[in-house]
Amino acid sequence: MKKPVMNISEVELQPRPPGFAATGPAAQRFDARMGFIGPRIGAQKLGYNLTAVPPGKRAFPFHNHRVNEEMFFVIEGHGEVRIGGEIYPIRPGDIIACPAGGEESAHQIINTGMSELKYLAVSTKMSPEIAEYPDSGKFGVLAEFPPGADGQPRGFRFVGKEDLNMDYWEGE
Q1: Which secondary-structure segment (H or E) carries 80?
Q2: What is the largest CA-CA distance in the chain?
Q3: Which pTM value belongs to this model?
Q4: Residue 75 contacts by C-beta under 8 Å, 6 or more apart in sequence?
Q5: What is the fold, at CATH topology level, of the domain defined by 28-164?
Q6: Per-domain boundaries in the chain
Q7: What is the pLDDT of residues 37-54, one digit of tens each?
């Protein structure tokens, strides 16, 4: 069994993995470094990560989860969180609840401060997941699978828009 204890000072923040880094015009608004904790301490049903967002940036688009619940604990820095149609100021020590649901539970953390905003993110890890992005009208279907024969994690990610939907019987 992995050591189930880790100090937050031991979490090494890394740029996002390929495929999750903002590119093109989105790179002007989105950026974050992340340190994944859960796998290092043997977590199985919860995901934990430390996220650091530069001033003026957001880590992720405004989104909601239909399956998983998230919680954020602000460690340092100041900003705001959009939840549904509301905006709340956030500061060190704040705990943010983001239950699964529709557009009313959509959320986004924004660093409005002058220094890095760091928070601990905790999430259930039920798979598959459906995420919706109200600002852009997109949705995502995300799934994690057991590691392949090479030991590498495997998954499925499809992002699309409802108006690009194919007929169920197309190509059959």
Answers
A1: strand 79-83
A2: 56
A3: 0.92
A4: 8, 50, 92, 118, 119, 120
A5: Jelly Rolls (2.60.120)
A6: 28-164
A7: 998 999 999 999 999 999
